[in-house]
Amino acid sequence: MNTITKLVVLISLCLITGTSHAQDTLQKTKSQLKIESLQEYKEVITQEEKAFLKTEVETINQRLENKEITQVEAEVLKQEMAKKRALNIENRIAIIDSQIELITRNPGYYPSTQSPENEVIISIGKKKGLYIKSKNEPPKYDIRTSNQLLFAIGFNNTIIDGESLDDSPYQLGGSGFVELGWLWKTRLLKNSNFVRVNYGLSFQWNKLSIKDNQYFVANGDETTLETFHLNLKKSKFRTTSLVVPVHFEFGPSKLLGFNDRIRYQTHKQFKIGLGGFAGVNLATKQKLKYKENGNNQKDKFKSDYNTTNLVYGVSGYIGVGDFSIYAKYNLNDLFKDQAIAQNNVSLGLRWDFQ
């Protein structure tokens, strides 16, 4: 019994000693990791302040080129910026050195200001860790390209050779289109935002709601409208396309000037865009709803229905700010190699969310 007691005491002492040693090692590892991270961050500070200075000098040169300041004023501003950035480096590194000294004297102490801005440290096992720092860049003096979300919705129909819209086999109210895309807008002139070009990628959904109890039938290479054998509640035909829209946009804008940048603002400004689109047809679907033997039926057919693979056309918009009236016309035939050509035409509302 005495032997067992001694053995239990010995094991307990070993566990306590091992745990204490592990905690000391872990604490030491954390402290070392933090100190190494701060040492590395001193170099980051230097590079960051140099990047700020480079951008500020470019801004001063741009102002000089635009004749906003004289050569003498530009040199004075450059010297002031250089002095400011040098002092920033000196002060920020002094703060880091103070943090390193504090952690060295107190391994378990981590001041609230210890972490470099936007810093993430990940350690795995005994590895030193992974240091990640997001970029903190100064604003650009002038941004010529911006991006925006495109959303448009409205009415859709087709122009058929020899027929007017009043004689169209498609409902005017039930046929529509939706467009969703991502665009870039680039200013074409150096010192004016009057002319811009919009370009990007967008999805177009064109839907036709067929009248008079008809639906599309593909007979070989020919697609025709035929009468359904039952009373149709709904007969809809939809194409999905991926296109590249390009528009030249014209209109005034407001110039906003700041100390370190300029911006052209088109908010609440008149605009008009003229251009077109080109792309590919991704999918074609027809949906029929009807009642058979007292039961509601819904059929969905996915087929090409001899629709044109390549889609292209002209489009334009006119509006104010983000909102505009939007029109587009497909130059390609809806169906290829048909006796009577018909082309999609759309009119609706468009929003360009910047």
Q: Approximately how much beta-strand content do the residues carry? A: 35-45%
List low-pLDDT spans. Answer: 18-27, 121-131
Instruction: Give the number of domains.
Output: 2
Strand order of the largest sheet: 3-4-5-8-11-13-14-15
The global form is elongated
Mean pLDDT: 84
Tally of strands: 15
Q: State Rg.
A: 34 Å
How many helices does DSSP assign? 2
The end-to-end span amounts to 82 Å
Largest sheet: 8 strands, antiparallel, barrel
Order of helices and strands: HHEEEEEEEEEEEEEEE
| Helicity range | 25-40%
Q: Quickly give the structural class.
A: alpha+beta
Protein name: PorT family protein
Keywords: Signal
Organism: Gelidibacter gilvus
Signal peptide: 1-22
Structure description:
This protein is an alpha+beta fold. The protein has 2 domains: 132 residues; 209 residues. The chain is built from 2 helices and 15 strands. The strands form 4 sheets. The chain has an 8-stranded antiparallel β-barrel with strand order 3-4-5-8-11-13-14-15. Helix 1 runs antiparallel to helix 2. The longest helix is centred in the first third of the chain and has 64 residues. The radius of gyration is 34 Å and the shape is elongated. The relative contact order is 0.11. About 6% of the residues have low confidence.
